From TrEMBL:
Stretches of the chain forming a coiled coil according to its record: none
Alphabetized Gene3D superfamilies for the sequence: P-loop containing nucleotide triphosphate hydrolases
UniProt name for this protein: Iron complex transport system ATP-binding protein
One GO molecular-function entry: ATP hydrolysis activity
This protein's UniProt keywords: ATP-binding, Cell membrane, Membrane, Nucleotide-binding, Translocase, Transport
Pfam families per record: ABC_tran
UniProt xrefs under PROSITE patterns: ABC_TRANSPORTER_1, ABC_TRANSPORTER_2
Record organism: Rivihabitans pingtungensis
UniProt cross-references to CDD domains, sorted A to Z: ABC_Iron-Siderophores_B12_Hemin
Role noted for this protein: Part of the ABC transporter complex HmuTUV involved in hemin import. Responsible for energy coupling to the transport system.
Source domain of life: Bacteria
UniProt keyword Protein transport present: no
ABC transporter domain segment(s): 5-240
């Protein structure tokens, strides 16, 4: 069976630097991948490339067994949803309408169907923001706006979600809720998630696999169970200590000099 997303010899460069060299990788249904690396390692560039928003400097990407570039836009949006790291709201828009725009790839007619509205309402409820449905998105707090963005992605209802730092603006309770929601989504048949995150511990509690971006374009792709403190320390450029508690592993930054 073909992977949901896969790459062969994928190479990314920016600003005269190789960010990723010859990535051979497969993302299967049921998996939750965490992309980990230092600032500037190339995580966002990778996600944007996998979402089809920039062209790779080398190699191939396939979405559900078909070259990414060969997908028609609406078809691709039914298959793959992407949450950018940041955005700007230029216009007034009600929260519910912002979610309904995300139903565009599924539209059969000009108007919103009962299914579109039910899907948007369900996403608002899942993110605990049903009470914000009628609010202008420009009046939301940073964390509320971030949850609306994730809710819009859920409303798009693509089986594969790529999320760039989805928990960055959230308090710890909402971070935990979001990570649990994304992990649960991977249990649905045919679904998978890939996310960039600096919230190492919460993310690695829920992710099944990690893609580590190292120096000079080197990378490691492996199950989270095979991660070690040496590997994570090398990836993040800071010594980490592994702590075990209640059968779970946590990583803490070691004290500086
Ligand atoms: N269009 C561009 N022109 C020049 N340099 C770029 C361009 N796009 C990205 N870069 C550089 O490529 C590197 C990777 O950027 P990217 O945003 O992918 O990093 P990141 O791993 O997501 O970092 P962070 O953790 O800080 O969000 C950075 O050094 C960035 O400055």
């Amino acid at each position: 069976m073909s992977a949901l997303l896969d790459s062969q010899a994928l190479t990314l460069r920016a600003d005269g630097r190789t960010l990723l060299n010859a990535l051979d990788w497969r993302l299967e249904a049921g998996q939750c991948w965490a992309v980990i690396g230092r600032n500037g390692a190339g995580k966002s560039t990778l996600l944007r490339t996998l979402a089809g928003l920039r062209t790779a400097e080398g190699g191939r990407i396939q979405l559900a067994g078909r070259a990414l570039a060969d997908w028609p836009l609406a078809g691709r949006a039914r298959q793959l949803g992407y949450l950018p790291q940041s955005w700007r709201d230029a216009f007034a828009c009600q929260v519910l309408d912002a979610l309904l725009i995300a139903r565009h790839p599924h539209r059969q007619a000009y108007w919103d169907s009962a299914e579109d509205i039910a899907s948007a309402r369900a996403a608002l409820a899942a993110l605990d923001i049903g009470h914000l449905a009628a609010r202008d998105i420009r009046t939301l707090s940073g964390g509320e706006r971030q949850r609306v963005a994730v809710a819009a992605l859920l409303t798009q209802d693509a089986p594969l979600l790529l999320l760039d730092e989805p928990a960055a603006a959230l308090d710890i309770g909402h971070q935990a809720q979001l990570l649990a929601l994304l992990a649960a989504r991977c249990q649905r048949p045919g679904h998978a998630v890939m996310l960039v995150s600096h919230e190492l511990n919460l993310t690695l509690q829920h992710a099944s696999h990690a893609l580590l971006l190292l120096d000079d374009g080197r990378w490691r792709a492996l199950p989270v169970a095979e991660l070690s403190d040496e590997l994570l320390s090398a990836c993040l450029g800071h010594p980490l200590l592994e702590i075990q508690r209640d059968g779970r592993r946590y990583w803490l930054p070691a004290a500086g000099p």
